[in-house]
Design goal:
By secondary structure, the chain is mainly alpha-helical. The protein is built from twelve helices and no strands.
């Protein structure tokens, strides 16, 4: 399987896995958020370390610049998590969603500037269709939220785009399991103080959900890190939007939530955009490597 096609499939698996994380978090009631983040990433640290050792990889990068980028990626990821939590807790969810979902478009711009990636006609088409899908799903936006939380949501989008750019630059410099290990380790340190102060002993069912949060997050992180080493950052970032219909479908079957007509229409547009990307990307790959 060509790298571009394999990368696209991995990124779709990643976005579905991130949606699964949110499903298990929603099922997990009575456990503080920071404790959930802490346990999730303790699991990720353990699995990532095992993968590094099993594959004879290394926790070291190929060179010092790559090590610095890896540490920056980990720090940015944690900061992005904090800003996203703040925005989600203090602003209208539709308004937060429109700003955080700007990340793929910001990634395309940053990839063109810093990675010199070209933007092809099929990508413009996919961006337009996907953006229309997001607007349909989100619906009417009132802009009633305070400025600071909305600014935090926009910063989250910028940081998320920066993470994807860095992941692309780590191709051949650091194993995907190594990048996940460092990000998870940073997250553990970030969540530890609050976890100690507000720790709640989980019930067996809560423990199961916590483990599933950790496993789902690990699948999401490792497939994302691998996918962005195989697909151009700008193109790959648009697959993130597949998380919108994926979340709706999973919530319908697992949580029993209803699916609104606007979600079906918007989700269909986003899926069409993903198909445009997949087909267009494969054609472009064949042109570049006949």
């Amino acid at each position: 399987m060509e790298n571009r096609k394999k990368g696209a499939i991995l990124l779709i698996i990643s976005t579905v896995s991130f949606a699964m994380v949110n499903i298990f978090v929603k099922l997990l009631k009575g456990i503080p958020l920071m404790e959930t983040i802490f346990i999730r990433n303790v699991i990720n640290v353990g699995i990532a370390y095992w993968m590094v050792k099993k594959s004879d990889s290394s926790l070291k990068c190929a060179d010092t610049p790559a090590t610095i980028r890896l540490l920056v990626r980990s720090l940015i990821g944690v900061i992005s998590l904090y800003f996203n939590m703040y925005a989600a807790s203090n602003a209208n969810q539709a308004e937060v969603t429109t700003r955080t979902r700007m990340a793929p478009y910001l990634t395309i711009v940053l990839a063109a500037i810093f990675l010199k990636e070209s933007i092809f006609p099929y990508q413009y088409g996919a961006m337009a269709v996907a953006f229309a899908g997001v607007l349909v799903v989100v619906g009417k936006i009132s802009f009633n939220s305070a400025l600071l939380p909305l600014a935090a949501a926009f910063v989250t989008a910028i940081l998320s785009a920066a993470v994807k750019i860095i992941l692309r630059t780590l191709k051949g410099k650091a194993a995907p399991s190594t990048t996940v290990f460092y990000y998870a380790a940073f997250s553990v340190i970030f969540a530890l103080p609050a976890t100690i102060v507000n720790f709640v002993v989980p019930t067996p069912l809560q423990a199961f959900y916590l483990i599933m949060v950790g496993i789902s997050a690990m699948v999401a992180q490792i497939t994302m890190s691998t996918g962005f080493q195989l697909v151009p950052a700008g193109e790959g970032s648009l697959y993130d939007l597949a998380g919108i219909p994926a979340a709706a479908i999973l919530a319908f079957f697992i949580l029993g939530e209803s699916i609104k007509i606007k979600t079906i229409i918007g989700g269909t547009l986003i899926i069409i955009a993903a198909i445009i990307l997949f087909i267009g990307g494969n054609k472009q790959a064949k042109k570049e490597n006949p």
